[in-house]
Amino acid sequence: MDDSSQLTYNDSPSLGWLAAGVAIGTAGALLIIPHWLPGMISSVTGDEAKGFWYISRIAGWEAYFFLWASLVLGLAITGRVGRAWWNPSLLFALHELTGLLGTVLALTHALILIGDRFIGYNPVQILVPFSQPAYRPFWVGLGQLALYLLLPTTLTFYLRRKLGYQMWRRLHYGTFAVYYLGAMHALGAGSDSLAAASLWFYGITSAVAYGLVLIRLWDQSRPTRRALRPNAKET
């Protein structure tokens, strides 16, 4: 991100977007829950109930998507193409909203397993990285690390005025680590990650993220190359 973009999106009306998202989600839930509730009750009772496990898997897919979208929107804010075609204030509001949604879904993905009896995690195994031996401990541990990085990274949205732009920008680079750790967790721990649809989904989203990162690095290196050209001629 450069200093010119800071002036544009620093005061974006993100709470309005969040309220709209909550309202739409609530309305959808009120329509769907009455039809799902009987089946959901039966799926979360009993020793072999898998309801919590399925909810966790769905939340994990959604968390990955929204965190990917937040990363892409953040890169678009500072890219020439994004600023040429979109209002930076809108991009930043969507960047913040998708980041918040991804955080809530990631917490749901992890914490709802406290009630799961299918695998039988305990709170320590859920909260302490690499502590559970039951299911792909290394890949699950990467997801736990991603979650612990995600929480302070999301918090920086609300502390950017106190932190100052430069400090906020450095801390916000944690978004990259969160996404890549989360992607490895999804591929390694996902019970259906080798399915064709999963591989296409992860492949396309990862390619877009990597491509935008490379474009950003290329854009940032261009002034440096221009500055070096006169010196190269002199030598």
Q: Mean pLDDT, rounded to whole units? A: 77
Q: What is the alpha-carbon Rg in Å?
A: 21 Å
Number of DSSP E strands: 0
Name the beta content range.
under 5%
Shape: globular
Number of domain units: 1
Biggest β-sheet strands, sense, barrel: none
Please identify the oligomeric state: single chain
End-to-end separation: 33 Å
What are the segments in which pLDDT stays under 50 over at least 5 consecutive residues?
1-13, 224-235
Helical stretch tally: 11
Give the SSE string: HHHHHHHHHHH
- Helix content percent band: over 70%
Short summary of the structure?
By secondary structure, the chain is an all-alpha fold.
How would you describe what is shown here?
With about 240 residues, the chain is mainly alpha-helical. It has one domain (about 50-220). About 80% of the residues lie in helices and about 0% in strands. The chain has eleven helices and no strands. It has helices at about 5-10, 15-45, 50-80, 80-85, 90-110, 125, 135-155, 160-165, 165-170, 175-190, 195-235. Helix 3 (about 50-80) packs antiparallel against helix 10 (about 175-190) and helix 7 (about 135-155) packs antiparallel against helix 10 (about 175-190). The longest helix is centred in the last third of the chain and has 39 residues, at about 195-235. The chain starts with a helix and ends with a helix.
